[in-house]
Amino acid sequence: MNNILEIIKKAENTHELTKEEIVILLKDDENRDELYRAADRVRKKYLGDEVHLRGLIEFSNICKRNCMYCGLRRDNKNLKRYRLKEDEIIELAKKAKSYGYQTVVLQSGEDDYYTVDKLKYIVREIKKFDIAITLSLGEKTYEEYKAYKEAGADRYLIRIETTDKKLYEDLDPGMSHENRKECLYNLGKLGYEVGSGCLVGLPNQTMESLADDILFFKEINADMLGVGPFIPNEDTPLGKEKTGDFHLSLKVTAIMRLLMVDINIPATTAMESLEPEGRSKALMAGANVVMPNVTEGEYRKLYALYPGKICVNDTPGHCRKCITLKINKIGRYVSDTKGFRKGNDREVV
Ligand code: SAH
Ligand code: SF4
């Protein structure tokens, strides 16, 4: 057996790899299908065939940050900005529940219009629909995270983007890598299910640095991990850079599953924006979650993190049916639970 197959076998059996071994897997393309199949077996063994859906509400594209890769960055004057009112967000969450979602993800740029009081109101009202809430609002203080948690928020997504401090601080001007890590730590301390993840294919990112990302996620015991290829946006300073590689993103996803058997891993929208059936391929390489869009009308298009985003002209009802078909087509089914991390045992039956 060649060395690479042995590393895959070790990962499948022990769920431990060294940084060097991860780098070897990331660099290899010959055996990548075997890597995906091993991750798929681990997913099936620990989590079965159910897929958790999270309805994504993109409620504001206004952002005070200036991340070099992101179309919502404050210096992008080429984007019509929008912000949904509190009651519009609550209404979208209610509709999400009616489509059968058990979780909504509220995501936005870092928009200070939404004060702690406004967010507490939104979270409290949405919790009345008996639905889990994931927030993805960027960096906030410990007290702010605490207030949202007390209002009923269950989970929080904040990608580290990259664990390479220099690369991070070059790409996220004015932001501190320590603070990003502190946010993850604070969220865990407050009892959130914590989601993180990274971008794959950033300019100057190395395989070694991606391996560090994976080991970092294992070390902090993240509950959810989303990985997306970097997709250059013309309206940003990185507009002329190379697009991230789909298969490299898939390899990162598969290795994450091999090393973290019971966490929730989404098949991300960015993956399908690059590759036809990209989300189905991710679901067959370790992923067990999909986050269909429930944002309505022109806002979908205006939430333009990167170009080529899928489903921008579709309705929430259409996306719900379409994703169910895709999931069934690969022999999987949509879960009817809230889909907390298995080991966390929070499910109320
Ligand atoms: N403002 C919040 C949430 C919205 S951004 C935050 O930054 O955490 C959500 C994610 O979009 C980011 O974490 C980033 O990983 C991703 N993203 C931004 N620009 C992207 C691009 N050009 N290609 C792929 N993903 C991108
Ligand atoms: Fe704002 Fe998030 Fe985009 Fe950075 S990645 S500019 S914080 S929306």
From TrEMBL:
* Statement: the UniProt record of this protein carries the keyword Iron: yes
**UniProt entry keywords in alphabetical sequence:** 4Fe-4S, Coiled coil, Iron, Iron-sulfur, Metal-binding, S-adenosyl-L-methionine
Cofactor(s) it depends on: [2Fe-2S] cluster; [4Fe-4S] cluster
For the Radical SAM core domain, which residue ranges apply? Answer: 49-268
The record's SMART domains line, in alphabetical order, gives: BATS, Elp3
* Pfam families in the record: Radical_SAM
Q: Has UniProt tagged this entry with the keyword DNA damage? A: no
What superkingdom heads the lineage? Bacteria
From the record, what ranges are coiled-coil?
A: 1-28
Per its UniProt record, what InterPro entries does this chain match?
A: Aldolase_TIM (IPR013785), BATS_dom (IPR010722), Elp3/MiaA/NifB-like_rSAM (IPR006638), FeFe-hyd_HydE_rSAM (IPR024021), HydE/PylB-like (IPR034422), rSAM (IPR007197), rSAM_sf (IPR058240)
Name of this protein: [FeFe] hydrogenase H-cluster radical SAM maturase HydE
